[in-house]
Design a protein that fits this description.
The protein has strands at 2-6, 16-24, 28-35, 41-47, 52-59, 77-82, 88-93, 108-112, 117-121, 135-144, 149-158, 161-165, 168-173, 179-180, 184-188, 194-203, 208-215, 222-223, 229-230, 236-247, 254-267, 274-280, 287-293, 303-307, 315-320, 344-348, 355-360, 366-371, 377-378. Strands 1-2-3-4-5-6-20-21-22-23-24-25-26-27-28-29 form a 16-stranded antiparallel sheet, with no helix packed on it. Strands 7, 8, 10, 12, 13, 16 and 19 form a 7-stranded antiparallel sheet that branches. Strands 9, 11, 14, 15, 17 and 18 form a 6-stranded antiparallel sheet that branches. The chain is mainly beta. A hairpin with a 5-residue loop joins strand 28 (366-371) and strand 29. It contains no helices and 29 strands.
Length: 385
């Protein structure tokens, strides 16, 4: 465990009073302890990727004798859980040299769930939009080793592949071949079981295969299970907040923790990060907000509607400008001007009682707005823009 401690700011109300960074690479990092005008403190606890997993406060300073606010029985706290997706985040190119030079933006993003154990043979293409031959793949995320010790890593491959653990090359077999790579080793220490992983792979012609294998200490070689891999998207699955409710009808006052869960689900491939539903107070009122996405144009997923928790007249509807669509008769700079595809065109309120319309100039700046059939409200810009 490494401890770094220092004062970052004057202890003025609302500013960071001090920042105590306590790092345990196996679990989490505590960073930033703030103090409000009433002298109450708050703390954010983060995991090794910097994601907030727990917050405490605001609560009296005496609650924070340790790393969190557990010094007080019912200090407000929130815990955050992330999606337990297995597999790795993947990027694809129709270029077999991505591991040698910059190949531009990926053509396809997706999540390859489960183990890295693929035998694509001679076709069809591994994913839609990618060639059956002469392609590259980059996979990233986390790998969790089940215990300490030295692990030997290698691939069954066709063609070239490289493995990085915590940004260090462990296996380098960047050649056209149909064989097993040489072993690389990873020393896993207590408190550091989860590590960053990156796999670069390319396929030339003929057969295509990629299989990640490990030999744990004292065990036989096996395919790395999908349960050991995570794409580390940082998508929040659940937030649980515990606050206090003080009832003053009794002496002494009774303090009852109030717990509320907010659960989020995601639409389609998790690599898109598109929220499907959000349920507030999942175990009680279950207030559900639901999102829908447009299916056109292909590959572009814009929000088309949002339904609020009540079931009656709660859906917001959204429309966007399409390709080659021009602005309606409205305001100078927008009327008859080609609109930027995907720009918000109209927003219809729940129940259809009100529609807000928008128009933009050639550079995408808003120049017109109106409600229903009211006159347009126009915006003009001077020479400074």
């Amino acid at each position: 465990m490494r401890v770094d401690q220092g004062v970052w700011a004057q202890p003025q109300a609302g500013l960071i009073e001090s920042a105590r960074c306590i790092t345990d690479v196996s679990v989490r990092v505590v960073l930033g302890r703030t103090k409000d005008a009433a002298g109450r403190k708050s703390t954010a606890i983060r995991d090794r990727r910097g994601r907030v997993i727990e917050t405490w406060g605001p609560a009296p300073a005496s609650c924070f004798a340790g790393l969190n606010g557990s010094g007080c029985t019912n200090a407000p706290r929130t815990t955050t859980e992330y999606t337990g997706i297995t597999g790795l985040a993947s990027e694809w190119w129709n270029d077999p040299t991505v591991g040698q030079h910059h190949a531009g933006a990926p053509l396809v993003h997706n999540t390859m769930t489960g183990a890295v154990d693929y035998n694509w043979g001679s076709g069809p293409p591994p994913v839609t939009g990618i060639n059956a031959e002469n392609f590259s793949l980059r996979m990233t995320g986390d790998i969790t080793f089940p215990s300490v010790g030295t692990y030997f890593m290698r691939f069954k491959q066709d063609d070239g592949v490289r493995l990085y653990i915590d940004d260090k090359v462990v296996v380098d077999s960047w050649i056209d071949t149909n064989s097993f790579s040489l072993n690389g080793s990873v020393d896993v220490a207590a408190g550091n079981l989860t590590r960053r992983i990156r796999i670069d792979y390319y396929e030339r012609t003929g057969l295509a295969e990629l299989q990640l294998r490990w030999t744990p200490p004292g065990q036989a070689e096996a395919v790395v299970p999908g349960t050991a891999l995570s794409p580390a998207y940082g998508l929040v699955r659940k937030e649980t907040s515990v606050d206090t409710n003080t009832t003053v009808a009794t002496t002494p006052a009774t303090i009852t923790p109030l717990t509320s869960d907010t659960v989020t689900t995601y639409w389609g491939d998790p690599s898109l990060g598109l929220v499907d539903t959000v349920t507030v107070d999942n175990g009680g009122l279950a207030l559900l907000t639901d999102y829908e996405y447009a299916t056109t144009p292909a590959g572009v997923r814009r929000v088309s509607s949002r339904s609020m928790p009540s079931n009656v007249n709660t859906k917001w509807m959204y429309a966007v400008y399409g390709d080659n669509e021009v602005g309606p008769a409205s305001c100078p700079g927008g009327a008859g001007v080609r609109q930027v595809p995907g720009s918000l065109k109209a927003k219809t309120h729940p129940g259809g009682t009100q529609t807000e319309s928008y128009v933009y100039d050639l550079t995408g700046r808003p120049v017109g707005y109106r409600k229903n059939s009211d006159p347009w409200t126009c915006t003009t810009y001077d020479a400074r823009g």
